[in-house]
Write a structure and sequence with these properties.
It is a single chain. The chain is α+β, with helices and mostly antiparallel strands. It contains seven helices and 15 strands. The strands form three sheets. Strands 1, 2, 3, 4, 5, 6, 7 and 8 form an eight-stranded mixed β-sheet that branches. Strands 9-10-15-14 form a four-stranded antiparallel β-sheet, with no helix packed on it. Strand 12 and strand 13 form a beta hairpin. The N and C termini lie far apart (63 Å).
Length: 314
């Protein structure tokens, strides 16, 4: 404990010495640095803000009215691409009583850009809402009604309750602030030693940022994104009967270098599909039509390294 305290004291001393040096050698850079630190810190520590509120019903295990607060939060990452799951943070369900009414509230947060992209597109908004409801069903083992409506108010319950629910344990924020201080120290050292004319940017190292993000977010179809994986080449098409009516969806996926089906992990729901292959390939698709998961079949053609999945339509 004594050694740890001495190390912390040394870092603090270095931090202030470097600030003093920067203030004397380049007052304008010092001023800009402090202003940027305040701006970045304010954005980082800002909590989620309510965007819209949905009303639906919990059907199982016990029927109850459910309100879903959709919130925007800059701490939630932006999706890597249209093919990747949409990151989100889901708060714990809370039962609230008002006079004789008892209902459940669940808070869900997305990156602001995700919600803004759906503001003028009703189809995308409906898809995002259904994805949200599906995520809630999976995480809390609930069955929700497929019908919903957007309420006239933006949030059910107090904003303070929502922020406490989503932001969770304050230790996470403290840990993040400590990492920022350590990284800021390195940037100041680099700025003063190299006498750089460029204002240092406050950015977490990639390994730290991704590690903390995994603690702050949950995803619809996976709990962790492997950044080194690639999206494989694939072909998705409908198979039709004699009357030209679509009856199945067929997906062919090329997996060069893969020779064993045991390396492939497949997960299929009614409306999406996830394939992960030995940390080399990853493919997540939203299916164009609902499918029968129990009747879905898959086969692997070894000499072509091709996975073929056949999914009958509901």
């Amino acid at each position: 404990m004594e050694t740890s305290s001495k190390g912390l004291l040394t870092q603090i001393t270095q931090f202030w010495n470097l600030l003093d040096d920067l203030a004397e050698s380049d007052p304008e850079c010092y001023k800009n640095f402090i202003q940027q630190e305040l701006k970045e810190g304010k954005q980082l520590c800002a909590g989620p803000e309510p965007q819209l509120c949905l009303q639906t019903r919990i059907v199982k295990p016990k029927e109850k009215i459910l309100f879903i607060n959709l919130c925007q939060w800059k701490r939630i990452p932006i999706p890597q691409s249209a093919m990747h799951p949409v990151p989100l943070s889901v708060g714990r369900p809370e039962d609230i009583s008002e006079t004789s009414d008892v209902y459940t509230v669940i808070d869900v947060a997305y990156n602001p850009e995700v919600l803004q992209a759906t503001e003028k597109d009703q189809v995308n908004k409906d898809q995002l809402i259904k994805m949200t409801m599906k995520c809630i069903e999976k995480q809390f083992q609930l069955t929700l009604s497929h019908s919903y409506h957007i309420t006239e108010f933006k949030i059910k319950g107090s904003i303070q309750r929502m922020k406490q629910n989503l932001m969770g344990v304050q230790a996470d924020v403290t840990d993040l602030r400590q990492k920022i201080k350590e990284h800021t120290l390195e940037q100041l050292r680099s700025s003063t030693v190299n006498n750089s004319d460029h204002f240092p940017q406050l950015l977490l190292p990639k390994d730290q940022a991704s590690s903390k993000a995994r603690c702050l977010i949950e995803e619809i179809s996976s709990t962790e994104i492997q950044r080194e994986t690639k999206i494989p080449v694939y072909d998705l098409k409908f198979l039709k009967d004699q009357n030209e009516k679509p009856v199945k969806i067929e997906l062919k996926v090329d997996l060069p270098g893969i020779t064993e089906v045991s390396l492939c992990e497949l997960s299929v729901s009614e409306d999406d599909l996830l394939i992960e292959v030995s940390e080399r390939y990853r493919l997540h698709l939203n299916l164009p039509e609902p499918v029968h998961t129990e009747m879905t079949t898959a086969k692997f053609i070894k000499n072509k390294s091709t996975l073929i999945i056949t999914m009958p339509l509901i």
